[in-house]
Write a structure and sequence with these properties.
The structure holds two protein chains of two kinds.
Chain A (H helix, E strand, L loop, with lengths): L1 H8 L3 H25 L17 H27 L10 H12 L10 H4 L3 E3 L12 E3 L6 E2 L26 H12 L7 H8 L5 E4 L4 E4 L1 E3 L4 E3 L23
Antiparallel strand pairs in A: 1-2, 2-3, 4-5, 6-7
Helix pairs in contact in A: 3-6, 6-7
Chain B lengths: L2 H8 L3 E4 L2 E4 L2 E5 L3 E10 L5 E13 L2 E9 L6 E6 L2 E11 L2 E3 L6 E4 L6 E7 L9 E9 L1
Antiparallel strand pairs in B: 1-2, 3-8, 4-7, 4-12, 5-6, 5-7, 5-8, 8-9, 10-11, 11-12
Classes of the chains: A mainly alpha, B mainly beta.
């Protein structure tokens, strides 16, 4: 019987035909499975999340949305496993590129002089009361200086967003932002739609009537506090205008 | 869906919400140099409430001059006079939470009363909870 099968199917020109057919069928199955397995492809977009405007603006909004989604996934992986991907072929250079891309999601405020970024930033000094531990000192020109009080371990929602990894590695800016959004997702101030975004590690949004555009919130990387770009001057401020806190987003 | 979510959804700064027209901000076109008097009638003490002002010309309060200002419930007197050049003046409510200034999220929104003469009244809600009156101010505008 096997002999007949070989004679009939795997002989002459039919060998080539069978070989090609098998690969076409396997390829089709792979494409179908990949399509079904990718939940973000061709998904239904609710009216509230649809972007309006010109074609270029819609494309940019969709690109931004995908980038935020990817950054949120990478951030979660970094928190859990210390790396942005679980692929076997994932290398340090891949990791560097991914972190840079995530950091670029929120660009520096162009009005802020670049020179100020060169000044050492002390992490963890959240309040004037000084009760919070100093977590470390950051200087772009030197390795990160970790204080002994710096919490370490696997981060979970509710923990300090500045927490180091088990090996003592500080969170990237993108990871810090995602942690802050997840931590503040339960705050009713943001509204249901923003809370849903924040639970996924994405920044909340608002409609700015002055510009007519939708803008996203930023995180002050020194204090790990959420805020918005822009500055309002208090003419009755006594000393320093704490309300004018301008978010230092990178 | 909150008014703030509908501002995003409908790309507008005013929506009808629960029977009210809820504004993200109100804009006044000043045809001449004017004096805007802001009188605070009520402000909740749960968190600092503020009235933000943005103008295309500089604003002057006392000896402070700036195009964007905020009058906080905890620092500004009950009545403030602002000297504004002719041009556009926009007002909206802000609040302070967790060390940052917020606006236009959650339950935020402003109700604008019909003007009576040169005076009108703004009732504003911050983003927390349901829409409530967290800040109420009276606005009076007269020529400088």
């Amino acid at each position: 019987m096997i002999g007949e099968f070989i004679d009939e199917i795997l002989s002459g020109d039919r060998v080539v035909f069978s070989f090609v057919s098998v690969w076409v069928i396997a390829g089709t199955i792979w494409i179908v499975l990949d399509w079904l397995g990718n939940t973000s492809r061709g998904r239904f977009v609710p009216e509230a999340e649809q972007h309006h405007g010109t074609r270029a603006e819609r494309l940019e909004a969709r690109r931004r949305q995908r980038a935020e989604d990817d950054a949120a996934v990478r951030s979660t992986l970094r928190d859990a496993y210390g790396t942005s991907s679980l692929r076997v072929t994932w290398t340090t250079s891949h990791e560097t590129v991914a972190i840079d891309a995530d950091n670029q999601l929120v660009r520096p405020d162009p009005r802020r002089p670049a020179a100020s970024l060169r000044e050492p930033v002390r992490l963890g000094t959240f309040s004037e009361s000084g009760v919070e531990p100093l977590l470390g000192t950051f200087d772009p020109d030197t390795p990160f200086i970790v204080e002994s009080a710096m919490p370490r371990g696997r981060w979970s929602v509710g923990a300090d967003p500045l927490m180091l990894s088990r090996s003592g590695k500080p969170p990237t800016a993108a990871t810090l932002r995602a942690r802050v959004w997840k931590n503040h997702a339960g705050d009713p101030m943001w509204g249901p739609a923003n809370q849903e975004r924040m639970r996924a590690g994405r920044p909340p949004q608002r409609h700015n009537p002055l510009t007519g555009k939708v803008e996203t919130a930023v995180v002050d990387l020194r204090t790990a506090r959420p805020g918005w770009r822009g500055e309002l001057r208090d003419p009755f401020a006594t000393v320093t205008d704490t309300a004018d806190t301008e978010a230092d987003s990178a | 869906m909150t008014a703030a979510e509908r501002w995003i959804d409908e790309r507008t700064s005013s929506v009808d919400h629960d029977g009210d027209t809820v504004h993200a901000a109100v804009t006044v076109d000043l045809n001449v140099d004017s004096i805007v008097t802001v009188r605070r009638l009520h402000a909740t003490d749960e968190r600092p409430q503020g009235l933000a002002l943005d103008a295309d010309q500089s604003l002057m309060v006392g000896d402070v001059t700036n195009a964007r200002m905020v009058l906080w419930s905890h620092s500004a007197p009950d009545e403030v006079e602002i000297v504004a050049r002719a041009g556009r003046l926009t007002l909206w409510n802000v609040w302070e939470a967790d060390g940052a200034v917020h606006a236009w999220v959650g339950a935020a929104g402003m109700l604008l009363d019909d003007p009576a003469g040169d005076t009108t009244r703004l009732r504003a809600s911050d983003g927390f909870g349901d829409r409530t009156i967290d800040l109420e101010v009276e606005i009076r505008i007269r020529a400088a």
